[in-house]
Design a protein that fits this description.
With 309 residues, the protein is an alpha+beta fold. 50% of the residues lie in helices and 19% in strands. The protein contains 13 helices and eight strands. Strand 1 and strand 2 form a beta hairpin. Helix 1 crosses helix 2 and helix 3 crosses helix 7. The two termini are 24 Å apart. About 4% of the residues have low confidence.
């Protein structure tokens, strides 16, 4: 049996990014041969990669990149926040964004078949390799590609990402003040979650459902029992206004000056800049949104580890 030193283990860990014990065991199995040890780790890693698919990856990052007239936003998930903060992982996400912008795939499945940035391997192969190196499940969950005039913002090391799309004329865009206005709208969307850009974007079915809920609320209120139909309709219309204020970006109170709406802020800014500006769409990704996170009992986990040692 070869003499495996701590230095050898550390060097193999540096080359592969795998755990210390995994590296030591691989070197033992390979009788100290580095190339064979790397092969052992790769074989185990690829086998482990399939097992990792059943794990829950609800951490990770949301990131955004703009190249020319094209902007992409992606959410890539990890199992732990520790890995999400790893510089190697974050650089990997940047390369995914480069791949998206270069290939403009239709969906995640199409992206997986694309050539990964500056390599001959596919995104799927690169993801498998990164999974092996990092040692936990990674998942490209979703992405969006936008063309045109935009503002972007990433909050909290990738916790939330926002893209705001504008219809703005050349005079407004050329003005140095446009960048600040655009950024302020992006900050608004990050700070105040909503579903629609304006009231015209709210689906008719959603409005009808909201009206029905409001109607039933009034029917159950004894104070409204003898109110004329016209009055009830007015109350419903007023409460729908509150719905728009909550759920529509341009109808929200502007966070830096709640005496006006976001639409009014943009309108006022356009006049000052000597052009026209209109918010046409927005995209917001919250990391892990809608993913059921695993509940960990860390005390039990530690006790389990101790019992095995």
């Amino acid at each position: 049996m070869a003499n495996i030193s701590a230095k050898d283990v550390a060097e193999l860990r540096k080359q592969t990014g795998c755990g210390m014990m995994d590296c030591k065991n691989a070197l033992v199995a390979a009788n100290g041969d580095f190339e064979e040890a790397i092969k052992v780790l790769r074989e185990k890693g690829m086998a482990a990669s399939a097992k990792k698919q059943s794990r829950i990856a609800a951490e990770g990052v949301v990131d955004v990149m703009t190249q020319g007239n094209l902007t992409a936003m992606v959410e890539v998930n990890t199992e732990t926040d520790f890995v999400a903060k790893n510089e190697s992982f974050r650089a990997f996400v940047k390369d995914i964004l480069k791949t998206i912008l270069a290939n403009r795939p239709a969906d995640v499945a199409a992206l997986m078949a694309c050539k990964f940035a500056d390599t001959d391997q596919t995104v799927e192969a690169a993801l498998q390799e990164k999974t092996f190196t990092i040692g936990e499940k990674l998942s490209i969950r979703r992405f969006v590609i936008v063309e045109g005039t935009v503002s972007t913002y990433v909050h909290g090391m990738g916790a939330t990402g926002v893209i705001i799309c504008f219809d703005a004329d050349a005079a407004a865009v050329a003005n140095p003040g446009f960048a600040e206005v655009a950024k302020n709208v992006a900050l608004q969307a990050a700070a105040m979650p909503c579903q629609y850009v304006d009231r015209n974007a709210v689906p008719a079915a959603v409005l009808e459902e909201e009206k029905e809920i409001l109607k039933k609320q009034l029917e159950q209120d004894p104070k409204m029992a003898n109110k004329p139909a016209k009055v009830l309709e007015g109350i419903i219309a007023g409460r729908l206004g509150k719905f728009y204020e909550t759920n529509c970006l341009t109808e929200q109170a502007y966070v830096k000056d709640d005496s006006m709406t976001v639409a009014k802020y943009v309108q006022n800014a356009a006049k000052e800049l000597g052009g026209s500006i209109r918010v046409t769409a927005f995209y917001r990704y919250d990391k892990g949104e809608g993913i059921q996170k695993r509940e960990e009992d860390f005390a039990a986990e530690i006790a389990k580890m101790v019992s095995k040692s």
